[in-house]
Design brief:
Helices cover 55% and strands 20% of the residues. The protein has five helices and five strands.
Length: 136
């Protein structure tokens, strides 16, 4: 094999590696994030605050349902990762809420934030959130 053929082969593999690496990074990034100390501490706090049933629901279904302290027919569905909080009333989604911290936080801390705000002062939580009405 000539030197030019070898150089072109190596160059071809480099181009392929550069093209594939962003896709590989997107696939492994969620798993690597859990290795960060802040992510681990946030997950420990979340486990301490949730009941085993709530933690199971969060892991299996991807959301945590928090009952309204003031309205017996209302439930807040908080996603495990970034996204809208759904307001469920009498079994139907009535609203989506957008309420995010100013600074970047681990996903587990954002779930804790929503849980504590809803349970502590639901009225203020609803006042601060951007609301999007669900129309069916």
């Amino acid at each position: 094999m000539s030197l030019i053929t070898q150089a072109l082969t190596v160059l071809g593999w480099i181009v392929i590696a550069l093209a594939v690496s962003p896709m590989v990074w997107l696939l492994i990034q969620p798993y690597l994030r859990n290795w960060l100390p802040a992510e681990r501490r946030a997950m420990h706090l979340l486990r301490d605050l949730l009941t085993p049933e709530q933690l199971r629901q969060l892991i299996w279904y991807g959301y945590l349902e928090i009952p309204s302290p003031t309205e017996p027919q209302r439930m807040y569905r908080v996603p495990r990762t970034k996204g809208y909080v759904q307001v469920i009333e009498r079994g139907r989604a009535t609203m989506r809420l957008c309420l995010q911290p100013v600074e970047s936080l681990p996903d587990a801390d954002v779930v804790v934030l929503h849980k504590l705000m809803i349970e502590a002062n639901e009225e203020t939580y609803l006042q601060k959130a951007n609301k999007y009405i669900c129309v069916e």
